[in-house]
## 1
Amino acid sequence: MDVVNFHSVTKQYGAQSALRGVSFDVNQGEFLVIVGPSGCGKSTVLRIIAGLEHPTGGIVQFGGRDATALSPGDRNVGMVFQNYALYPHLTVFENLAFGLSAARTPKSMVRERVREVATLLELESMLAKKPGQLSGGQKQRVALGRALVRKPVIFLMDEPLSNLDAVLREKMRMDLRRLHEQTGVATVYVTHDQVEAMTMADRILVMQQGEIHQIGTPDEVYHEPETLFVARFFGSPPMNAINVRVRHREGGWAIVSPRHGERATITHPGAHATEWERLAGESGYWLGFRPEFVHTGRGEGVQFSVKVTDVETLGPRSHVHAEWGADSLVYVLEHGQPAPERGASVWLTAPFSCLHWFDEQNRRLRPQNRIGHVHPVQEAAGMTNR
Ligand code: ADP
């Protein structure tokens, strides 16, 4: 049985549509990360799960039962906010005990449960302190403990690490994952940070403008993005994306930009003749390839003649920015590879295996209609479409 189900949930704030028909499930024990740019509706989803907001349309279920109209107190959710929301005048013990005491739990049980949670979160030596005497990371752990103490059916976290510095954030990412593995409580975690999503999630739910673009494992959203938006949201620098058409040229095919007329040649297209023929229709596509998977020089794949505009040196690697006609492209050079001069003309090859194709509505083409990116796991298992 799923912990929570959303069925076509919508939310209007006046004329503003915050959610436009959102459906997904939270599985038992999973760590689900909701990610997307600011304003896409992530917090609204979380607040609807918590019961702090009610949907305009659709159904929310808890444990298979309709919970759309249940009040927050009847849902048994544990919520952790960005600002911790601790009571400053209470000790750590009292903060942890607050929810249980308010629910008239017997004192001995409160003590036992608080001790259990304090041990789990390594807060035993801080129980007599006030929040003002704690570091950011410690406050964060108290906030987690306070949510955990009531044995919630689901944990909800809204950007809980955004107030911490980079070093502490990295440590807390690992601590939160470990805590999740110890407690096994299903968790929905909201962030706008792709790195948090990639490193913490069992599954990632990607949102934009009140809609879900994809739900999948970190591996799936990176290697098999369903939309151009997902493709460009994950990865740094983002995936290159150019608007192209496929045209017959010299007994084979070429990639042409309808915008600026530049042409890219295809070497050894024969291995994919059926797919190239299918792609050579009237309509255009978005062609994507990640900066880390293209190489300089002429090789098997799609060859672009580009002009270098900038080189960013980042220690272990460099990002080279270049122009293909009026399109900007980026590629990555690993440490030790010589960087080109600004203004240099360079050949760039995107191997067939790294190509991603999207239609003009930005949706991924079905496998039979593309010369496709090969998922490494599928490739290892011999399940390729090549
Ligand atoms: P996110 O968490 O992804 O930043 P939110 O869920 O907070 O996004 O907001 C989604 C959209 O709904 C935004 O456009 C926001 O301005 C709007 N919104 C959120 N809460 C309210 C509210 N209480 N009143 C009016 N508009 C709201």
Note: Confidence is low (pLDDT under 50) at residues 382-386.
## 2
Amino acid sequence: MHSPTASSLRWTGVFLLFTAFCSLFTPAVMVKHENFKTCDQSGFCKRNRAYADTITQSSHWKSPYDLDSKSITFENGQLSGTILKTVGKAGETVRLPLTVTFLESGTARVTLDEEKRQKGDIVLRHDSKARKERYNEASKWAIVGGLKISSGAALSRETEAGTTKVHYGPAGKYEAIIHHSPFSIKFKRDGETQIKFNDRGFMNMEHWRPKIEKPEPKEGEEQPLETAEVTGEDESTWWDETFGGNTDTKPRGPESVALDISFPGYEHVYGIPEHASKMSLKETRGGDGNYNEPYRLYNADVFEYELDSPMTLYGAIPFMQAHRKGSTVGVFWLNAAETWIDVVKSKSGSNPLSLGVKSAVDTQTHWISESGILDIFVLLGPTPKDISQTYGELTGFTAMPQQFAIAYHQCRWNYVTDQDVMDVDRRFDKHKIPYDVIWLDIEYTDGKKYFTWDPLTFPDPKKMHKQLQKRERKLVTIIDPHIKNTDKYNVVDELKSKGLAVKNKDGNDYEGWCWPGSSYWVDCFNPASITWWKTLFKYDSFKGTGPNTFIWNDMNEPSVFNGPETTMPKDNLHYGNWEHRDVHNLNGMTFHNATYDALLERKKGEVRRPFALTRSFFAGSQRIGAMWTGDNLAEWSHLAASIPMILNQGISGFPFAGADVGGFFGNPSKELLTRWYQAGAFYPFFRGHAHIDTRRREPYIPGSPYTEIITQALRLRYQLLPAWYTAFHEASTTGAPIVRPNFYVHPGDDKGFEIEDQLYIGSTGLLAKPVVAEGADSVSIYIADDQPYYDYFDYTTYSGAGHHTIKAPLEKIPLLMQGGHIIPRRDRPRRSSSLMKWDPFTLVVVLDKAGNAEGTLYVDDGETFDFEQGAYIHRRFQFDRATKALTSINIGGTGAKTAAWHKTMSKVRVEKVVIVGAPGEWKGKTEVVVSEEGAKESARKKKVEFTFHSAQGKKAAWAVVRDPKVAVGKGWKIDFS
Ligand code: NOJ
């Protein structure tokens, strides 16, 4: 060390002054609010909010929607009828066909349509070619199962005038009480109302009406009345709307659908991603700390998005859960049009005697969509897991990814040449930093023409792939949905000649601007587009790619630089002549879906699990691949915001989620970068990414001690891959989130319902609390139960419900293990996850306060679909205090490929068992007895070395069984008695 000289001090001063000066001119990074609509600027949202206000302010309001009692029929688990909407003063009515379907899972589905539009009995304006019906195909894209109709659902015998009651659900314990006039529904479980429809009377289906064109009045004639003047409604946004210089011609006029949905006794609602908001959703009708805008779902490329905001982002899942102590319920609003959701909370009108279970607060929501039918699923829980399961049965579970996809991904915009890629790859190796995938952003293409390589910068993609393959690493290339409008580009020629592009309102190919400049958009609603899209990914078509190339789908909201709100005009037309308005939020998923299908068919006979990342998504996207939270900022606040966003994805059925590690825009400090890696190690999708204008920041760049600390975080991820993979398997079979918030794991602990900054990994009992504040050297972690929690690294014990402080200097990752679990690991550091395929396992047995523990392990080839034919190992490990034994039990099924896979895995063993919280009575013990199924007589009971380490201060006692040499796929027992 040397002391600062006068000259160095002078230079520091100059430097500080210079930085202060520069910061004056650094443009504030902020979303451009003026580019995106507020509710007030979105006609249908404004109309419906105003409607709600009128109702709230009126003392004698009666909703104009009546279920015609005579129309009701009930057959095969489905109630049908017609709702009559009274319009105008003369009492005319509009017929709205209703169905309420009761499903085997205990879910009820309510649909409402408009007869006139169903029959095509309407006239479109401007000679529009658009379909006349309300959009009714969202379920075709989103729903894959769970629609079996309940055989037990039945009309109740108790009759009350003006109501129809249906018993349904498990043991007939659910009831739907349908009130006819005005129409409303109460959903009850165990005699208590959980969810109410139209309780506040905000239900609204804007029916079709002709526009009364106002002819120029002849001299002396009276001015004819406008439609609105007849009905007394505000017509100003019915027939066209202009925003940011773009006019939406709205050929069908007003057609929104809206409904109030109330959750009595529920203080918390979660879900409806994607927003950079709190996990427990905030109120949206003003007041201290609340939003003034509803949560918006209208997939959009929001540049430099702001935090703590209900503004829309890139994806939409219109699925909400309400939670209180002992109960979770959900509603899935299946609508793909622009949607706004107001949330308010009020003092509960519930019985004070039931306080303590029910919250003293009711949550009331108001859902407003621009078009389409009303289609709502009602899920009555009662646990968060039940909700994940039933929602997953409907929309599908997370696709089981390849193993590499859950390891670390290295991305930036851009690795500029194939040499650059190979250099980065070599540097990771030189620094012994594990990684699995390197990514290429848009610059690899020849002038932004997807499926091509820039001939100057990527002359030899094959060689690049070959180098990566040496360590079984992969390459991901970006493919966006906009296709460059240029000469001599076969992709655009084919797109146009085959008629597969999205059309404008006049039926011609829609042209707009994106990265390549003038572009067309592939319309993946069209099955013919998918067939064509598949041809483009074949290895002999997308030359230079191979089996270790995978795909990144970006800009699929779709992002259109010169379009309204950076997307497509709503009056554009898709396959089947559906307006873009109807399908907007589905658009990204259809593109991602086409890419998935294409990856499945790149080469005949080669069937491996695809990997495709998407930015835009809808309910169901979880079946296809992973998502990330888009263009975040290299700021501490964005690191913090990533955690509730990812947790929210998990409880909303799309858990394979991550955020750009390091932050996309800007240059993170070394400390921020390091902390971000430590947090990213707990994202289900773990990728470092950076904007083109940022400095390089691969883990080896920041230098000592940051590089070493980042490497430790990456190694931790790799060490725990067996636990992560098992969590993914659980998600893929039960819908349970991969990372879970406190309320999900402890649904009865009302103190933890708002906790959103710590995460449990699957069912492993691992609880991480990432450091997200600059300069922090400790974190306060919340423990919900009375189990002991042990520090992952040194076994320090934390016991007792409440907050605990964990020291967290830069090199420390706050990670605890909840007593009662067995965590599988692989401890040998490798350069990529594929190289760990035959490595032995370590089991960490974390005893609970009664001295028991259990856990599971799922292992397959990490690559193919052979697991569907039984090629996997699925074990339950159990440590039982009473028998003093650790056992491994098969919980897997069998199939055609089970035996072969088990044979392949027969040499893969458990090489170490660590017992944390080991009982003191083991002191002095030096061996344990191991037995394995099918072992030879001589080896049936072998003695294995055992060491015991006494507790020290707060550090728990622990013990190690050294190399029991038992096969991971077999049944075995380790006897500690
Ligand atoms: C926007 C994406 O969000 C970002 O991750 C990507 O780097 C750029 N597009 C360029 O492709």
Note: Residues 6-25 form the longest helix (20 residues).
## 3
Amino acid sequence: MNPPTFKDHIVAPSLLAADFSKIADEVVRAVHSGADWMHLDVMDGHFVDNISFGPAIVKTVDQIDDIFLDTHLMISRPDHYLQRFIDAGSDLVTVHVEADHDVAETLGRIRAAGRLAGLALNPATPLSEVEPFLTQIDLLLCMTVVPGFGGQAFMPEVLEKITAAARIRSANSLAFHIEVDGGIDPSTAPQCYHAGANVMVAGSSTFRAPDMAAAISAIRQG
Ligand code: DX5
Ligand code: ZN
């Protein structure tokens, strides 16, 4: 199967909303419900005001299933911890432009390791901050909430930034995915697709839905 392009709709349930008392079952449930990617939110209690999990859990998830692992590093020093998340089996590693590192170098290291490189920006960060790196990425993550916690409300003001990013992508014949993360559900996903995003991260609206398969399919449909 060819790898997905930015024209394909991809749904990535966020493990943060899973029942941590049975992580293996939850990963299998997501896979059986039609998840395309598994989104893994790594938080260090410093870059964001929450602590989640580290490379050991990423590795555990990698051993459970061969689903594509989309690791989102909300940590202050992604350059320092990068290799551990690569070794743990991440297929895509996304780092924040606001973190304390040489962004170009970190992105280069991710690709040199044969993984996809993602760059994230917070709702308050202007697109101009990521523009210098757009030729070096496979995915741009536009946060649609202030990162740190699941279950927050979608911020529609980010849509404009997604539209602008998609425009720059097409003007420069680039092909990176645009991912959205935070408050994505069957009602907000269509607005994001319309603006030009194609990867929907969804935590609460998938793992906590009465029917996870139906929720994933509704989000994918847009
Ligand atoms: C937020 C995380 C998200 C979060 C999304 O800091 O990056 O991935 O898990 O959760 P929901 O879908 O519940 O907003
Ligand atoms: Zn995330």
Note: The chain has eight helices and eight strands.
